[in-house]
Amino acid sequence: xxFGRLGGALALGLQRAGWPVxxxxxxxxxxxxxxxxxxxxxxQEDLASAAAVFLSVPDDxxxxxxxxxxxDLGRHTxxxxxxxxxxxxxLGAHGERPxxxxxxxxxxxxxxxxxxxxxxxxxxxxxxxxxxxxxxxxDLGLRTFSVPEAGRAAYHAGAVxxxxxxxxxxxxxxxxxxxxxxxxxxxxxxxxxxxxxxxDGVEARGLSAGLTGPIARGDTKVVQxxxxxxxxxxxxxxxxxxxxxxxxxxxxxxxxRTDxxxxxxRx
Length: 267
Ligand SMILES: NC(=O)c1ccc[n+]([C@@H]2O[C@H](COP(=O)([O-])OP(=O)(O)OC[C@H]3O[C@@H](n4cnc5c(N)ncnc54)[C@H](OP(=O)(O)O)[C@@H]3O)[C@@H](O)[C@H]2O)c1
Description:
Blueprint: H1 5-16, E1 22-23, H2 28-36, E2 40-41, H3 44-49, E3 52-55, H4 62-70, E4 78-81, E5 99-105, E6 119-124, H5 127-139, E7 143-146, H6 152-162, H7 164-179, H8 184-205, H9 214-217, H10 220-229, H11 235-249, H12 255-266
Parallel strand pairs: 1-2, 3-4, 4-5, 6-7
Antiparallel strand pairs: 5-6
Helix pairs in contact: 7-8, 11-12
Bound molecules: NADP nicotinamide-adenine-dinucleotide phosphate.
NADP nicotinamide-adenine-dinucleotide phosphate binds next to helix 1 and strand 5.
């Protein structure tokens, strides 16, 4: 249910992997797009006979979507949401019906964006549903892990820092280059490969050994020049991220260097 960015990626990926998928759409535009992608449109019989119904609707519509389809579901049809921050209880009380969640850690800005190679957090109230979600994730190219129900909001906050936070960080870096006279499209073109190379370093060597730049070198003079040059509104972000960097650099630098950086950044 829902043929948006994630619903589209799930439906198209599962269909490619040979799963029998049909989609339930709200608007005519989504319906036409689903048909154009070769997907079947779900009818009431599909809801009654499906092994699982995935609710890929905005987080604040999950509870009402679950209530809307509940009466048409088969007795054993599982109900699954895809929202990282929401507990299973948002799906409502359904007696014996298996309830679950499949949340891919992927930033999808279009329904044709790939899911392969990403991770997904799974939870389920029955072993059979967990098995079905694992099989779906495997066929989508997702590796899986689980998150305790009580920790979902913190888990999702971390995911948002890593995805939306990275985009916001790119925008702050573009603004810093604008201060130096580099225009925005050129700045973004230059910064994206740099950001990817930083992530490649972390992937290859871990967080501490993957850290580069003046913090990793313990260079207070360069950090001081940055603090003097940056626009005022970027300073809190620069200070916060650099202090995290100092913590990562502690394993590699003499304590007098990290103490000097720490003091400078807190001044
Ligand atoms: N996008 C991501 O990167 C991503 C990653 C992981 C998890 N998720 C989760 O996936 C879920 C969907 O997010 P999304 O990004 O795919 O959203 P989206 O692109 O905005 O798509 C939402 C879909 O839900 C439909 N819809 C909206 N309100 C509805 C309602 N009240 N009742 C029924 N259908 C409704 C929309 O229909 P129309 O097309 O007809 O407007 C649309 O097809 C959310 O729980 C989100 O947390 C998203």
